[in-house]
Write a structure and sequence with these properties.
The chain has 8 helices and no strands. It is an all-alpha fold.
């Protein structure tokens, strides 16, 4: 994604773009912050309305898969991953956000284990696996949109969650 691509898609001039953002990195940080806020809102919503921890995990993973069907969101995510390789500020912000969500997801897993909804499983490792699956599937799906069907990935993830259910 280049500034020219963004301007063409938004039907804005480069001058208008630079009126809002000093450089492409600033746009990526704003997109990251928006994405992080949406993920936090999703998690808060699930905590409020889904009492069973295992069901909350299932709905969270399904919501993450749904995000993978949006090519624009996947492109932004891929650009963020690329920028993290060279932009310390983006890497730091992304890592902090991921750590906060991993802690939250880990607590869901720990609560599910304590409630007898899941087998004993290393909660931080399982949370990390769920995050890695989400990002990895989105990136692989962008490489070849016909490589797999999201509905089938969802079914496979349900089987995975059933496998760790007690």
């Amino acid at each position: 994604m280049t500034v020219d691509d963004v301007c063409a898609e938004a039907t804005l001039s480069k001058g208008a773009f630079y009126g809002y953002f000093g450089q492409k990195r600033d746009l990526l940080l704003a997109l990251f912050e928006d994405d992080a806020q949406r993920l936090d809102e999703l998690m808060t919503d699930l905590e409020a309305r889904v009492p069973k921890h295992r069901d909350r995990l299932r709905q969270y993973t399904q919501a993450m898969l749904a995000r993978g069907s949006d090519p624009a969101r996947v492109q932004v995510r891929a650009d963020m991953w690329t920028a993290m390789l060279t932009e310390k500020e983006i890497r730091t912000a992304f890592a902090a956000g991921m750590q906060a969500r991993r802690i939250r997801l880990r607590s869901w897993i720990e609560e599910a284990v304590a409630a007898g909804e899941l087998v004993e499983i290393p909660a931080n490792a399982f949370a990390s696996i769920l995050f890695a699956l989400s990002d990895g599937l989105q990136l692989h799906g962008s490489l070849d949109p016909n490589a797999f069907r999201w509905v089938n990935i969802g079914k496979a993830l349900d089987v995975l969650l059933d496998g760790v259910s007690s």
